[in-house]
Amino acid sequence: MVDGDQGLTVEGLTKRFGTVTAVDTLSFRVSRGQILALLGPNGAGKTTTLLCLAGLLRPDAGRIAWDGRVLGPTRGRDVALIPETPEVYDMLTVWEHLVFVARSCRLRDGWEEEAARLVDRLGIADQRDTLGEALSKGMRQKLLLACGVLAATPVLLLDEPMIGLDPRGQRELRDLLVELRRREVAIMVSTHLLEYMEGLCDGLLIIKRGRALAAGPIQDLRREHGGRSLEDVFLEMTES
Fold this sequence. Notes:
Number of strands: 10
Distance between the termini: 33 Å
Strand content: 25-35%
Number of helices: 8
CATH class of the domain at 1-78 and 155-165 and 184-240: Alpha Beta
Order of helices and strands: EEEHEEEHHHEHEHEEHH
CATH topology of the domain at 1-78 and 155-165 and 184-240: Rossmann fold
CATH superfamily of the domain at 1-78 and 155-165 and 184-240: P-loop containing nucleotide triphosphate hydrolases
């Protein structure tokens, strides 16, 4: 890759656990202002891939770069991950979580207005002073979404973000992702909800056993398979 290239570029990403290769020489790109769906059956290596990108797992091989700059193990100002299991700090309130993010990311003055807008949009304004330990799974998920968006990192990773969200939360998440795409954030979403992603994402990456089966715009992939639905294409590719 040439220095100065825009977006997140992953080359030859490999992660092993003992004799098991969870991610196998995976290469792909997420451009600025793109939403990329990461698809695959259970055990395909989706979560491991996201953890490696976020710096929470150390890859055995590969190169991860943002705008041509190789990212090191500590990359919290570049990449934010919202995991499938919403873990929050038990003894911090909802608002204190946002204060923690603002201070950690050294956000500029005015972040309070953005934080207040997010908690209101996600329906957790009434829980502003509630401790993390008292939040339901869905509320924890919404809090992590608010924290991830507030951090304003150029790369946002989401692992099964719809799980635990009520219909309002799902709609607000979709609207937030569209808004972030307009801000040229590079977004990667791992999910099993194919129909939902088909109407939202610009492209997809299908993996199985840690290897890429297909990558590119959704419509191109469907056209290559005779105009069949994304679900049909996915099942054909992953079950063969």
